[in-house]
Amino acid sequence: MCGIFGVVSSQQVQSSLIDGLSKLEYRGYDSAGLSILTANNKIKRVRCVGKVKNLKSLLVKSKSRGVCGIAHTRWATHGEPILKNSHPHNSKCVSIAHNGIIENADELKKFLLKKKYKFTSDTDSEVIAHLLNYFVVYHNDATKALIAVTKKLQGSYAIGGICDKWPGTLLVACNGSPLLIGIGNDENYISSDMHALSNKSEKFILLSDMEIATITKDTVDVFSQSGKKLKKTISNSTKSNIEISKGTYKHFMRKEIYEQYDIVVNAIKNKIGAYGLLPNIFGPNSDKLLLKTKHIHFVACGTSYNAALIAKYWIEDVTDIVCTAEIASEYRYRTVNVPKGTLFVAISQSGETADTIYSAKKAKTRGYSSLLSICNVPESSLTRLSDLVYLTHAGPEISVASTKAFTSQLVALLFMTMVLSRTSSLKNIEKTILKQLKSLPSILKRTFSLEKIIKTIAKNFKNKKHTLFLGRGASYPIALEAALKLKEITYIHAEGYAAGELKHGPLALVDKNLPVVGLMPDNNLVNQVLSNLAEVKARQGLVYIFTNKKLKNSKTDKTKVVSMPSCGHFVSPIVYVIPMQLLAYYVAIEKKTNIDQPRNLAKSVTVE
Ligand code: G6P
């Protein structure tokens, strides 16, 4: 994973490196570091465990000043998050930062040990530094050295490097991990994403797999692995320069939970016209394609996968289309059967999740009718791969635990269900969904007003070790999402279960210390969920029910019922996820955890 930022300029680059790196911190925050070539042509490296703010303080004290440098924020893969494993890694005349995984690192290490290189870290990345040094000495030519290095590497990498032989030059290589070159005035940049370049440059070059580059403040030269100089397209960024701040909120997560209202309102405003859903909102001729679709394979990770699961319920409810929803890390390695007329749909907030990207690449070769992505980031690896793109326009999501991206995906998937329902023999489905969607903003407002109650309930979870969330139908993926949110930010072990599965195992966990949360919109499954919760109560479990059904509780019943606003069947997952997000948030407040940047996690998972 990790984030890489680099600058070569006529001015000193320290603050620019820190600024760029801070914007990449969502990619990992186990450690941070930078290397700068000083005026007397020495590589000055500063590294620290933890966040970029620690690096900033160290940099103030150090004498690292120069016009060319690279910086890195790490999410540990190989080697603990300790100082010696922090990037950049040095080898005599070179210093490099790496994002990705080098699969043949052990083999390369053996080769380098024979050449008397000394290893000081447990990372796979250090082999790149030594290899680069080896080939710089051998070829005395930056391009030839980079080509030789990349020919040896197996796996994924974005590499930014500096070398004291070429003081004003950034050395760059890319394969399977994203890297952009930003074109500035009298300075150029490298960055893992567009966002970190937003206040620096509007023009950028996207490096493709197996490309290398040498970059000075005035020039950018990109080469193929065969050494051919490439003419790369310079693109203009369409990303608006949105200033990202918490505003009056204490955490991005709570801000993003509340932004869900506007996201829903805007999606309805922008995609629904006087006569219903606008045509082809999933891309050119997409309506025609969707109407011919017989099967859909949804593929995603994390929260986006939970959105895919809900889409499967919705679509199979109202059409004859056969849907599967699959975790990308499973899909990418298994044998997949693709019947004629199957659409591949990738769902991803970032558009950079490695397993989702690899799955999409695999799908391209498997005869799908099309590759459609539902994504929040316009200039992402996933959108570039896709034939059709639906942008969710949720705005930058900063909190690692996804909230608003999920809702925006669900709205997109409901739109998709509307289009697909046109083939259905059931009457008026599209109109019913439309009506429910239009009612959603006011229902959401009423749902947010439950915050105070949820804040109180959260206190009961503070000292719990485990929690179960139960739901049936489309509320089952919401139970999964609720459990995911709770474990991500509170570190309480939580599981989401289809309520009917309770008796097949998890019931064994129930005792007077286990909170069990039932998600129970008043629909055809209510009685079944109530029976399942009765099984919990009979074993003294602590039951919390979120429902819009009026329940008659006896005075001795300790069940806590949270009365939800009534809502239509199709929009209920969007409504019921809100209190689950707030519950996780307030339990995390109680536990004083790092809500926006929980331990061990990262926002964008660019390694498998
Ligand atoms: C990480 C994030 C999750 C996210 C998942 C998939 O695990 O922490 O919030 O759901 O990646 O990310 P994507 O960007 O593909 O939706």
Description:
The protein has 17 helices and 27 strands. By secondary structure, it is α/β, with parallel strands linked by helices. The chain folds into three domains: 240 residues, Glutamine Phosphoribosylpyrophosphate, subunit 1, domain 1; 196 residues, 3-Layer(aba) Sandwich (Rossmann fold); 151 residues, Glucose-6-phosphate isomerase like protein, domain 1 (Rossmann fold). The strands form five sheets. Strands 3-2-4-1-10-9-11-15 form an eight-stranded antiparallel sheet, covered by helices on one side. It has a seven-stranded antiparallel sheet with strand order 5-6-7-8-12-13-14. It is globular. It starts with a strand and ends in a 17-residue tail after the last helix. The mean pLDDT is 94. Bound molecules: 6-O-phosphono-alpha-D-glucopyranose. 6-O-phosphono-alpha-D-glucopyranose (G6P) binds next to helix 8.
Structural class: alpha/beta
Write out the CATH superfamily name of the largest domain.
Answer: Aminohydrolase, N-terminal nucleophile (Ntn) domain
Strand order, sheet with most strands:
3-2-4-1-10-9-11-15
Question: If you compute it from the alpha carbons, what radius of gyration comes out, rounded to the nearest whole angstrom?
Answer: 26 Å
Number of helices, where a helix is a run of at least 4 consecutive DSSP H or I residues? 17
CATH class label of the largest domain: Alpha Beta
Strand content of the residues, in percent? 15-25%
Please name the CATH architecture of the largest domain.
4-Layer Sandwich
Tally of distinct domains: 3
How many strands?
A: 27
CATH fold-level label of the largest domain: Glutamine Phosphoribosylpyrophosphate, subunit 1, domain 1
Mean pLDDT: 94
Overall 3D form:
globular
Helical percentage:
25-40%
Q: Which kinds of small molecule does this entry bind, naming each only once?
A: 6-O-phosphono-alpha-D-glucopyranose
Give the end-to-end Cα distance, rounded to a whole number of Å: 9 Å
Low-confidence stretches: none
Q: What about the largest sheet? A: 8 strands, antiparallel
